[in-house]
Structures are given as C-alpha cells and as structure tokens.
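User: For my dataset I need records formatted as: sequence, then structure tokens, nothing else. Please produce one.
Assistant:
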Amino acid sequence: MAEHIITLGDVNYISELFGNFDENVKMLEKQYGVSITNHNEKVKINGDEYDVSLALKAIDGLMSLIKKGESIGEQNVRDVMSLVADGDDGKIESL
C-alpha cells in the first residue's frame, strides 16, 4: 500500500476538486481503486503504488484546470482520466 499527501494551499481548491457530494473524487476512486480523503488543505491518496501514481497525475491535472479558473465537472474528470490512461497527461493544460 502506498500513501501520498498533497497540500493544495487553498480550501476552495478542495471543494472544486471534490465536486458536489464528492462526485469528482468518487469517479477517481472508482477508476483507480484508491481512497481519497481531505483534511483542511491536504488531500490523501491511499492504494497500490501504481494506482496512487495514476490518481495523483489526474488530481494534478484537475488542479491545473482549477487554478486556471475552470469549474470542474464530470466531463473534465473523464477527459483528464482518459489522457492519464493514454499517457498524455502533459496535454491536460490544453483542455
């Protein structure tokens, strides 16, 4: 089991990342088989090392969109997960 903690620096980022009723994070958890929790400005990802690394790439991608002012919804999450699956997470910025 692996664990990774991300400090986001802004509580507002947490609410945007997690989405209404945590719908965004639930999609990530289901896709990658990980557990994602938050406390204050920190997000903790637990699971197998490889799955945690994929979830981390997806969260990093979503955070880059959030910091650009994007409102994150189901389609954004699906697009980011698709790019991560294809190894194209470097293209997330262009979404």
